[in-house]
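Example record used in the benchmark description.
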Amino acid sequence: MSPRLTLPAVAATVVSALLLSACASQKAPATADVAVSQAAVESAAQAGAAELAPAELTSAREKFTRANQALKERDYKLASELATQAQAEAKLAQSKATSAKATSAADAVQENIRVLREELDRANSANK
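Model output (structure tokens):
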């Protein structure tokens, strides 16, 4: 004789399955968001943000750490939100670092041009 499933047992099973699938569907995007934010933080650090945009990089790292903690605690919504914020902060830090490097390079070029003009003026004055 096979055991009969009652309507409440079937309903409970269906609800449990739906809840588990909902949790799993939230976990995947949150995990991906945290991974993307980690890559963004690492990229910003490699771009020199630690020296050129330390406040932004520190904020990105803190938010990434909090996102990781939320992920471990299975608070997938918070993990995703914090990961998105960390990614934005990291991109800002990287942009500031890149901008600072470009400004420094442009200043160096301008200085080289100034020195060359002085040398050219001196050479022209000596030939007169």
